[in-house]
Amino acid sequence: MSNYNAVLARNTENAPKGIGPYSQTVAFSHYNNLSAQLPIDPKSGKLVAGGAKEQAEQCFKNIKAIVDSINHVMSDVVRITVFVKNIKDIDAVDEVYKTFFPGYVPTRTNVAVAALPMDALVQIEALVSNGEGTIPNAPQAGDLIKLTNNTANAPTCPLSTQVVAFSHYNNLSAQLPIDPKSGRVVAGGVKEQAGQCLKNIKAILESIDVPFDDIVKINIFLKNLSDIEVVNEVYTTFFPDSAIARTAAYVPARTTVAASALPMDALVQIEAVVSHGDGTPPQAVEDRHGLIIEANNTENAPKSSLYTQTVAFSHYNHISAQLPLNPKTGEMVAGGVKEQAGQCLENIKAIVESVGHVMDDVVKVNIFLKNIADINAVDEVYTTFFPSGVPARRTVGVSALPKDALVQIDAVVSNAEGTPPKA
Q1: Quick check: 35 and 367 in contact, CB under 8 A?
Q2: For the whole model, what pTM was predicted?
């Protein structure tokens, strides 16, 4: 019997098999990573009739079918990410959302993007807890407790929880630049807004007694990608936060995404995934930090002072979004989207191998495309890296990418051995 967790990919006939080579859900350790669901009727394989409301309902039905097929329930959902073509459609999505989450609400991110596969209006993704874990034939910790928390020092919303902890991770709702006292977007431009987003994240972490430097992954959604330099000015005043982190020059893994629109007409929105050393009961508390964060960079992939290439904590490695940059020259590779996708995946492979892993350990891939029609060309390359099509996947079309790239890819990778406690 193996003492290590195993990657567990699963599919059901009750949900769409999807467009492209991926699994509906991939479990590893205490989380199920679901592929983003389009509003496809699993019987016909076509988009459902109707508008955003009908499409949102089908997306949630598909998520529920997948969740049911692995013997879980919708209250096991830890995080929901909603992508819409038109930000005004969020209200229609919310009507449906309430029927699937009438009591408990997970953490949540809402963002409008330039395009979605099959010209859909809505695409919805879920991260689901997995209490039994994935050590073959050996439940790990029984039914772990999901811990939810809200603080008045950060914006509250009846449709989302600020932070949901499960096992060794805290998953935060994406933070808008809202002053929690007034409930309004702060005055000023993107600089002030980025500062407020990060202040809100810090307030949430303080409310659960977790240091800011326990963040392992940051996702930044920008209305105007050209604002990234200003956001970076603010970002570097928050990271690193502690003397220990400054000594190690620790910064989280990071992905930056261009949004066509954000809720409340915000210019920026920031999402965080945070380590949780103590775990959730009945996991035993070894000490304040039973596990350590392992940050790693390799010369074989592009480097940046603003992010770490991969950050491991417990049983996951979080990889920063990779652009199609040649790590030796720092320049964009020649060619079109096929060559660019190949370079993005080569960079991910180099990072994965640098931490003693292989591409079969990847559980989730996120693809961001300048032109959604390029997905078929990307898939040609993608299948050479993932011939079995196991990882769960999300694909969205964006209005712009850093360095005017045609494609950007990030990944979540399993980490069977986990990260050790402090010596």
Answers
A1: no
A2: 0.96
